[in-house]
Fold these 2 entries.
Entry 1:
Amino acid sequence: MTTELNYTAAQQYIDEVFTQLKEKNAHQPEFLQAAEEILLSLTPVFEQHPEYITHNVLSRIVEPDRIISFRVTWQDDNNNVHVNRGYRVQFNNVIGPYKGGLRFHPSVNESIMKFLAFEQIFKNALTGLPIGGGKGGSDFNPKGKSDAEIMRFCQAFMTELYRHIGPDVDVPAGDIGVGGREIGYLWGQYKRIRGAYEAGVLTGKTPGYGGSLARKEATGYGLVYFVAEMLREKSESFLDKTVVVSGSGNVAIYAIEKAQHYGAKVVAASDSSGYIYDPEGIDLHALKDIKEVKGERISTYLNYRPNATFTPGCDAIWSIPCDIALPCATQNEINGDAARTLIDNGVKFVAEGANMPSDLEAINLFLDNDVYFGPAKAANAGGVATSALEMSQNSGRTSWSFAEVDGKLQEIMHSIYTESKEAAEKYGFAGNLVIGSNIAGFVKVANGLVSEGVY
Ligand code: GLU
C-alpha cells in the first residue's frame, strides 16, 4: 500500500514537471526529447527518495542556470560582413564548473543547445569527475570556409564568449564543426584578451600547448572500451564482429581504429553527403587522409579502394547487416524504421558515439528486442572525461603520457559501465543501461542540489 502511494506521488510529480516543461518549451523538440528520455527513467528514484520531491529537484534540474545568446559579426575573404548567433547554455554547476563542447553547424538553435547541455549534466556526473553541464556553439556553417575565415569567426566568437567563461567558471571544448584548429584560434583569442595563460579555460587544445595527449582519440576509444564491457557481459568480444560506424569525424575515426585493434571488421563510415561500404574492412589510413589531412568528401574513398561503394544520403547505412552498430554522426540518425532494419538484420549491440543519435522509438525497439544498448551519455562520456583530465593537468601545470591518460580513460569507462549496470539492477531494471545511466547520473546531481540548499 505504501509503495503504491509513493509510486503515485512520484509518478504524479514527474508528470506535472514534464507537463510544465512541455508548456514552457513547446518549440524545442530536441530538448523535450532529451528530457523525456531521462524523466521516464526516474519514477523508481523518486519512489525511494521522497526528499527529492520536497526539494523540487526535478524542476530545478530542467531549468538552465542561464542561457547566453550573442551576436557574432565577422568578415569573409571578400570583405562581406556576416552575422551569426552564438550561444552558451550554462545548465547546471552542482558538481563542477560548467563543461561541454561548442558546436558550429547551421542547424544550431536554442533547442539543440539545450538538449546537448542537459545531456551533458548527467554524462559529466557519470564520469565521476568534478564537472557540471553546459554547451555552446553557433549556427555558423564552417563548410567551404577558408582557414582565415574560420580564424576570424573563432576570434569574433571568443570576443564575446570570454566574459562568460573561465577555468573555474565554464570550460568549453569541441563538438561537431569544432576541432583542434578551432580550439587553437579560440584559445589564442581568449589568452590575448585576458592577458593571462589560463590554460584550463578550454579543453581539446593541442598537446604541447596545454592540451592532453589522447584527448583527440578519447571519445572513440572510450566508446569502444564501453562496448568491450557490454560484449564481455554477454561472453563475447570484438574479434571478427562486423561493425557499422556512421560519421567520419574524431569520434568515428578513433572508434574504428580501436575496434579494428580489437579484431573487428568495420565495413562502413559516412559523412553528410552519404556513406561508404567496404566489405573487406575500412582502410583507416585512407579515411584519415581524406578527413584529417585533405578535408574532402567521403566519396573520394573510392579512389583508394575501388571495390568499395559510395551511396549518397545517410539513411540506408543502417540497412548494412552487422553485429554491432555505432552511430557516431549526429542526433536522431536512427529512427524506428532504421532500428527495425538493424534488428531484422541481426544486430546484437548498439552503442551511441554521437549525442542522442537514436530517437525514443528506436531506443524502445532495441530494448524490446534483446539488443544490448549503450546510451550516449554513458558510452560517449570518454571525451569529456578526458577533457576533465586535461583540466587536471592544466591545474597541476603538468602533462601526462599517452599511456597514463589512456589508462585512466579505460578505468573511467569501466566504472561508468559498472555504475550504470548496477543502478539499473538496484532499481529493478537489470540490463537496461538507459535507465541505469540516467539514474546513476541523476542521483549525483540531485544529492548535490539537496545538500546545497534552496537558492
Ligand atoms: N562535445 C563532447 C561531448 O559531447 C565533449 C565535450 C567536452 O570535452 O567538454 O561530450
Entry 2:
Amino acid sequence: MQITCIVGARPQFIKLSPFLKAAEAANHDVRIIHTGQHYDDEMSDAFFRDLEIKSPDLNLNIGSNSQAVQTAQMLEGIEIDLLKNKPDWVVVFGDTNSTLAGSLAAAKINIPTAHIEAGLRSFNREMPEEINRIVTDHLSDLLFVPSDEGMINLEKEGLADKSIRTGDLMADILETFRTKIKENILDKFGVKKGTYCLLTLHRPASVDDYDMLCWMIDQVSQTDKTILFPAHPRTRNAIKNNNIKIPNSIKLIPPLGYLEFQTLQAKAFAILTDSGGVQKEAYLWKVPCFTLRTETEWTETIDSGWNTIVFPGKGNLKKAIEDWEKPNAHSNLYGDGKASEAMVNELYRKSNP
Ligand code: UD1
Ligand code: UDP
C-alpha cells in the first residue's frame, strides 16, 4: 500500500513518528511531504533527527505567511505531488494549515484521505484550527478519533459511519519514551524535580495581543515557582517586538527537543500551557495542567480533574494552582499505546475489502 503523509508543524512530526514506524513495519511504502510550515531547526529538523524519522521525500518550503496565502501555496505544491505519485491513501494529522491543505488537495482529485486526530472541537471558530478540523473531517474518507468526546462530536455532525476510535498517537510515542526519562536531564536547566512549572504559549489569542501577553506573563510570575518557558518562535518574536520585560523567575529558553521536553513535563510541579498536545501529555505524565484558554478540545482531561481552565484576562492562575486537589483516579483516556498499528491495519483493510 502506498501512503503519502502530509506534515508541516512541530506536533505533526511527533505524531508522524509512531505512524511511520507502524506502516514501515507492515511493509507499506510511505512518502512524506513536508509543507515547510515550520522551518527553524528546533521546530522541524530536530524532530526528524531525534525521533529517527526519515527525511521528507519532498519539502515544499512554504514558510510563514497569512492563513490564505500559506494554505494556497501548500495546495498547489501538494496537488502536483499527489497527481504524480497517486498514493492509495493520503494521511493528514491534527489541525494545522498543512492538515487543511493536504485534505483539500486530495479530496479534489479523489484520493482517499484519512484524518488522524479527528473529531476534536473547541466550538470557537476564531481559532484557525477549528476551521481546519471541521473542513478536514468533512472532506476525509476515514477518521481516526483519539477520544470518546471526539466520537460524540462526529456523530452529531453525521460523520459516525467513517469514524473509528483508535486512541492517540501521542500516547503511542510517549509510551516508547517513558524509560528514557532520566532525572539528571534536569541539571542542564538548573531545576529539581517538582520545584518548577513548565510554561508554553503559542496561540494567536494568547500572544498576538500585547495586553493579553502581558497578562499571561504577569499571572505566571505571581506563582511562587521557577518557570521554565521554552518559547515558540511566534511568542519569542512577540516578546522581542513589544519589548516585554520578563521577570527573573521566568527562564526564557528556546524550543526544546522531544526527550528534553518530555522530561521537563514528567518532573514538573505543574504545567501551564495553551497547547493542545501539551495538555494531553500532562495528563499522561499525571502532572497537573493549567490551561490558559477560554476552552479546550480535550474536555476529558478537565472532567478527570487533572486539567483546569484559567480564563484569559479574568482567571487567577495562582489561586487555581493553590486550590487544585489531586484526583484519586487516572484512567486510560488515550489508548494503550497501539493506536498507530490500529490505524495502519484499518487503512489496509479498507484498501483491500
Ligand atoms: C501552527 C498551527 C497551530 C499549531 C502550531 C504548533 C496553524 C493555523 N497553526 O501555529 O495549530 O498548534 O503550529 O506549534 O496551522 N515561525 C518561525 N519559525 C518557524 C515557524 C514559525 O519563526 O519555524 C514564526 C513565524 O513568525 C510565523 C509564526 O511563528 O509567522 C507562526 O507560525 P505558523 O506556522 O503560522 O503558526 P503557529 O503559531 O506555529
Ligand atoms: N514540544 C516539544 N518542545 C517544546 C514544546 C513542545 O517537543 O519546546 C512538543 C510537546 O511535547 C508536544 C508538541 O510539541 O508533543 C506540542 O506542540 P505545540 O504545542 O507546538 O502544538 P499543539 O499541540 O498545540 O498543536
